[in-house]
Amino acid sequence: MTIRRIDGFFYGLFMDNAVLRGQGIEPELLRHAYVDDYELQIGKRATLVPKRGARAYGMVIALTHHELDLLYNAPGLQEYRPEPVVAHTLAGETLPALCYNLRLTPEGDEANAEYAQQLREVLGRLGFPSDYIASVS
CATH class for domain 5-135? Predict the structure, then answer.
């Protein structure tokens, strides 16, 4: 019996294979992608919030239900909830994916400069557009 995998859209540090493998997760089918009408916001952690005309870049990665549970039941991540999104791969594929977002939008004064810097580094290593990387703060 084959365990079914679910496409997830990851826009934060979980885009990094090393981070996922460090959590005991073996990612499959990694695809560079974006979702439209969402904007990346960083408070203590990253989340996507709806915003017409915005675009958020990330990776579509196939994980099992168990692996998704491992990630989002970890300390500090329980406030994330799955939401369906339509992801567009940079190869031209359009597909449904789960995207985990915070239930509450970060407050305007929340910031995490260290997280933002790490995320810019990951985005750069993965080859995402430089203007998008520069917008991450």
Answer: alpha beta
